[in-house]
From TrEMBL:
Database matches in Gene3D superfamilies: TolB, C-terminal domain
Gene Ontology molecular functions: hydrolase activity
Protein name: Putative lactonohydrolase
Stretch forming the signal peptide: 1-23
Keyword Hydrolase: yes
InterPro entries: 6-blade_b-propeller_TolB-like, Oryzine_lactonohydrolase
Keyword terms of this UniProt record: Hydrolase, Signal
Length: 433
């Protein structure tokens, strides 16, 4: 039997109802306070009963794409002062029992590096070099036209942030993982003359010990892929990836989308590319659950794909790239699929998480099977069985992706617009080598 996702506060407030307006502000069912500090540090707060009944009047304003970013802590709750604890917290705990156990006795959030406000993606940890590799999708270029990647050197204390220009260079990796010592990058950029070299969206590998890259895939029967946003490598070497249209929206390609948004499986040994899903507006993050003990490589495994269609734009070549807008009523959902026994397809699609802030971007699965998603200015940790939000990390920048590092895969690095941060907690990542 699962433990309850709600928790009981340390005390229950006695609610006294009178004939005054208080009865309208505190409807039957309100538990006060809605929020309270909890755990080993003051930077952790617990949300009582998911704040499922708020006192009136409350209001959460939707984002307007220009001057206001919609977040849960910005909800106006005029008759519960405890809600003001949310903005200053590093960790929001929605399930006290599991959440505090996951955070451990000394959780911490540390802003490590200020970077430019471009998208920062494709984080991959290499155990062989003990370095974290990631991309920046805009920056100083050397040689002209290439966007160098970034590297966090974890062999020194404090860690050092530097640049990497591979040989040959890779234009705008947007998703990444490691398999058999090689970094697999989803290449999102496409141009006919990037530093004098033509590159198109696809899949490439980087050997972190030699800095050499090899292109594995760059077309679909002659058509350019759109973005190749995120990917994972299955045990048999197949590369599963999503292909939304964000490179066009973000001016990272010179050609409007030629294919509909879809997700694919690529077999490097034969070159075959198979579509696995075309039901999403903008498929974004993709991840696979850990292999279960005493199970085959495919038995009982789940594949997760996020649809970030709430952020989209126009694809007409004649209009050029006009960026994207955010619509809070659009798709911003993580879906689960069952992996077929042959490992070739996914079935039984169902939603498991609707992002409560912005859209689900980077997507991974912890070693214990919990879903971890970058959503706006933070990261959500979700139980895949019942779709319950357990903990949210709050950041001071928009998170695009993240990766676990270290010999025990316990250090958690987050990156996005304007920042790179590190979290120390007890949620362990899958061991990838």
């Amino acid at each position: 039997m699962k433990s309850s996702t709600a928790f009981r506060p340390a005390f229950l407030s006695v609610l006294i109802f009178t004939c005054r307006t208080t009865t309208q502000n505190l409807p039957p069912g309100v538990i006060s306070p809605l929020v309270q500090t909890c755990g080993p540090t003051s930077k952790i707060v617990c949300i009582n009963h998911y704040a499922s009944v708020m006192p009136y009047h409350f209001y959460r304003q939707a984002s307007d794409n220009a001057s206001y970013e919609d977040t849960f802590p910005k909800t106006i709750v005029g008759n519960d002062s405890s809600f003001s604890l949310l903005p200053g917290a590093d960790f929001l705990v929605f399930d006290q029992q599991r959440g505090l156990e996951m955070l451990g006795t000394a959780p911490s959030y540390e802003f490590m590096f200020a970077v430019n406000d471009a998208v920062h993606e494709a984080p991959v940890y290499s155990p062989a070099t003990n370095k974290l590799y990631l991309s920046q999708l805009r920056g100083n270029t050397s040689p002209p036209g290439f966007l160098p990647q970034l590297v966090v050197n974890l062999n020194v204390d404090p860690p050092y942030l530097g640049e990497l220009l591979s040989d040959p260079p890779i234009y705008a990796p947007n998703g990444g993982t490691i398999h058999n010592g090689l970094i697999y990058w989803g290449v999102s950029g496409g141009n006919d003359s990037i530093g004098g070299i033509e590159e198109r969206p696809g899949i490439a590998t980087l050997d972190p010990t030699t800095n050499k890259t090899v292109t594995l895939l760059n077309n679909h029967f002659g058509h350019y892929f759109n973005t190749v946003d995120d990917l994972f490598v299955a045990d048999n070497g197949d590369v599963w990836f999503t292909d939304p249209q964000y490179s066009w929206f973000n001016a990272l390609t010179d050609t409007a989308p030629q294919l509909n948004s879809a997700s694919y499986r690529f077999r490097p040994s034969t070159g075959v590319v198979t579509m696995i899903d075309d039901t999403m507006v903008q498929p974004n993050g993709i991840a696979i659950s850990p292999r279960m003990e005493n199970c085959s490589a495919t038995e009982n495994r789940k594949v997760y794909i996020s649809d970030s269609g709430a952020v989209t734009g126009t694809i007409l070549q004649s209009l050029g790239s006009h960026g994207t807008g955010f619509n809070s009523t659009g798709k911003r959902t993580v879906y689960a699929f069952d992996l077929t026994s042959d490992g070739n397809h996914i079935i039984n699609r169902r939603p498991v998480w609707f992002a409560q802030d912005f859209i689900p971007d980077g997507l991974k699965v912890a070693r214990n099977g919990w879903i971890v998603a970058g959503t706006g200015t933070g990261v959500d940790v979700v139980d895949p069985d019942d779709g319950a939000l357990i903990v949210r990390i709050q950041t001071n920048f928009t998170v695009q992706n993240f990766a676990w590092t270290g010999t025990d895969y316990m250090d958690f690095w987050l990156m996005g617009n304007s920042g790179i941060a590190r979290v120390k907690w007890n949620l362990q990542g899958q061991e990838l080598k």
